[in-house]
Please model this.
Amino acid sequence: MRTLARPEDKTEIVRRLGGVRPESPRRWGRMSAHQMVCHLADGYRMALGEQTVTSAGGVLQRTLVKWIALYAPLPWPAGIPTSPEIDQQGAGTPPSDFGGDVERVAGLLDLVAERRSPDWPRHPVFGRMSGAAWLRWGYLHADHHLRQFGV
Model:
């Protein structure tokens, strides 16, 4: 099972992130490649507790949907809505310098992967998650959006 806890999986995500270009065409969704990079950074800020995100999940999302999303051997589908606070066409961090934004997301990914706190923030949809679940989510979230841009 791929996770940011495994150095080889983390390295894979960083390598793939390096393959994204500002002009990379999306396969689905509304974000540009640059907005996607900023969205990943906002997601990692959320995992670190640096970005507050409004709760949007109910009991079904915190149980069954969470288990399927994190542990079923299926890629995440296109069209999953995101929280307004990390939506780059909403209140998410706006793109600035592409190279700097890519470096920023790689640095945040490292911080998430190296975090050893027993206290992680609540996920807006999945609720309470362990560090291991957050590291799994961190891999899957990046993989989902990198696939969105064919990387």
User: Anything to note?
Assistant: The mean pLDDT is 94.
